[in-house]
Specification:
With about 600 residues, the chain is of the alpha+beta class. Helices cover about 50% and strands about 15% of the residues. It has 19 helices and 15 strands. A hairpin with a 5-residue loop joins strand 5 and strand 6. The longest helix has about 35 residues.
């Protein structure tokens, strides 16, 4: 049984070149991608590269000064920050200053004109009729959402899940609306209609009778284009999703949202029938008189109430999903309730809402109706002089730290530095290239705290080498030769390294989640370099050590190898001793 085990061990030791080749290919591929993208340096944050600082002042409509309050300002900051800083590492900062000002810091290298437009424009909220919808992976979603009815008191109650249910079996009554033919007809009708589109076949006949042949041809062409966009739309793709919901509110569009199962849902939506400004107020309310639980009540203005009654009256005549209306905020569908009858007055959206979900939807509806606009008070250019000096000091400190680590390795581990120093270099190359690639992909920006995270990573990486080297030395002290010592030391060192790196990564993840602003840059860099430490140790450090263990300089324990058995106080090799044989009796012989 021992022979096969030795064979497997020998085979594992004889193929370290595969791991080294793999990491070399990864470095070449990433470096090639970096040069191909034209981004050969990481994007720098505003503290290192300078940028633009914008001061926005909230302006209320006459007689509505109370609208400028902490809740509304915080909601505005949240939406602006979501627009320009989706992952939290692009270094664009949005924060309140005082009671009516919002400060936006945009680093150099970011499209400041586009960012200024994004943060300075009030969130656009629309109610659009749903013409077609399905789960983005292609599964049909033609099953009905909860219905709507008028309450006895005359107050309309529209019931809806936060997202339409995504995977129910289509009923026979709903099937016609799910076909490509009826979807195409609905889109065509929406393009031809003067105001509100009708998605049914009967209203299609009414609305398509008056246009001329040329306008009909134009409408069909526009409908075909929209259907092609809908067919090709993959809501799981961030870039594709970012381009939805654009264009004029009076035109049909495609959009994305998440349903109650957390799946991406895509939509063809008709022209906007109700604007966010038509919503007077929206509140999250816990309904104690029914099993609905948390609901969202909407109070419309006089004009908005008429618009809402008109659109719900027309939608109620249609089949699912064309009896739904989508609540669209900044191009994203945040809810898609459906109705079965015309609703007038106020409306209530109910479903399986948690308190947080209901409050979030109410905030979105309210923000679209806020009588707030923002005026640019000042736009100033921030220089990187101070940040440049701090960066220079930080790089000097990092260089000194790295030099001290190398000196320590040379003094205490001598020849093993041939493993440690290249490993540090490989880790540094990977970190630099990945940071450069993350700039254009997720808008990652390197700020001073992120630089600090990279410097801390030097210690984390060096610690992994030391753990491995000390395990090898322990095996040599037990009297083993170098090659078996390396293989026996690796499993023990590997466990310690993984536990240590897991703790570091967990700390970085928690720090990234619970903090905002520049501290997230530190946490992100620390987490990234911790993951790279595991990659480098497994694919470079250990295979390189296996190869060097075959060299006489290390295998024979040269005094400058760092593995001299005498210097380490190794025990004599364990040898098996034979028991003395019993003396032979001459008489028996």
């Amino acid at each position: 049984m021992a022979a096969p085990k030795r064979g497997r061990s020998a085979s594992a030791q004889s193929k370290p070149g595969r791991s080294l080749a793999l990491i070399l290919i990864a470095i070449v591929a990433l470096t090639g991608g970096m040069f191909a993208s034209g981004n050969t340096t990481p994007r720098l944050g505003i503290d290192l590269a300078g940028g633009t600082s914008i001061t926005l002042r909230a302006v209320a409509e006459p007689g509505q000064e109370s609208a400028i309050n902490k809740t509304n300002m915080d909601t505005a900051v949240e939406i602006m920050n979501r627009r320009v800083n989706g992952l939290g590492v692009s270094e664009t900062e949005v924060q309140t200053q005082g009671t009516r000002n919002i400060i936006v810091n945009i680093p150099k290298g970011t499209n400041s004109k586009e960012a200024r437009q994004q943060v300075g424009t009030t969130a656009k909220l629309y109610f659009r009729p749903v013409l077609a919808t399905e789960v983005s992976d292609g599964a049909a979603t033609t099953s009905p959402s909860p219905s709507a009815s008028s309450s006895p008191s005359g107050k309309a109650t529209g019931k809806a899940t936060q997202k339409a249910t995504g995977k129910s079996t289509p009923s026979s009554s709903a099937a016609p609306s799910a076909t490509a033919t009826s979807q195409g007809r609905a889109v065509t009708d929406a393009l031809k209609a003067d105001s509100t589109p009708s998605a049914t076949a009967s209203s299609s006949a009414q609305t398509s009778a008056s246009p001329s042949a040329s306008s009909s041809s134009s409408g069909n062409a526009a409908a075909s284009k929209l259907e092609a966009q809908y067919t090709a739309l993959n809501c799981k793709n961030d870039k594709a999703r970012a381009n939805t919901g654009k264009g004029k509110s009076s035109d049909p569009t495609v959009a994305c949202g998440k349903n109650s199962h957390g799946q991406w849902q895509k939509y063809i939506l008709g022209p906007a029938e109700v604007d966010g400004t038509d919503v007077k107020n929206a509140r999250a309310v816990f309904n104690t008189q029914s099993a609905a639980g948390w609901t969202v009540t909407m109070e419309f203005t006089g004009t908005g109430s008429k618009k809402f009654a008109a659109i719900t009256g027309k939608l109620a005549k249609n089949q699912t999903p064309q009896n739904q209306f989508a609540i669209v905020l900044d191009g994203d569908v945040v809810s898609d309730p459906y109705v079965t009858q015309a609703l007038s007055g106020n409306a209530e959206i109910s479903g399986s809402f948690s308190q947080q979900e209901a409050q979030s939807l109410a905030n979105m509806l309210s923000y679209g109706a806020l009588p707030l606009s923002f005026k640019e008070d000042s736009v100033t250019t921030v220089t990187a002089a101070l940040g440049g000096e701090q960066l220079q000091a930080g790089l000097i400190a990092g260089g000194i730290g790295l030099a001290l680590v190398i000196v320590y390795l040379l003094i205490f581990y001598r020849g093993l530095s041939v493993v440690a120093i290249p490993s540090l270099l490989v880790s540094a190359i990977l970190a630099y290239v990945i940071m450069a690639l993350l700039g254009p992909t997720i808008h990652f920006a390197l700020n001073l705290p992120a630089v600090c995270g990279a410097i801390v990573a030097i210690g984390i990486t060096a610690d992994s080498f030391i753990v491995f080297f000390e395990r090898i030395r322990d095996e040599i002290r037990e009297g083993r030769s170098l090659r078996p010592a390396v293989e026996r030391a690796w499993p023990r060192a590997r466990r310690t390294i993984l536990v240590s790196d897991f703790v570091s990564f967990l700390a970085a993840a928690v720090l990234f989640i619970v903090t905002v602003g520049k501290v997230q840059g530190f946490a992100f860099t620390l987490g990234l370099t911790t993951v790279l430490d595991v990659v480098v140790v497994f694919l470079f450090t250990k295979p390189l050590m296996t190869l060097l263990a075959r060299r006489k300089f290390f295998a024979n324990g040269h005094k400058w190898s760092g593995l001299d058995p005498k210097a380490l106080g190794a025990k004599p090799p364990l040898r098996r001793t034979r028991r003395p044989s019993a003396p032979v009796d001459p008489k028996e012989a």
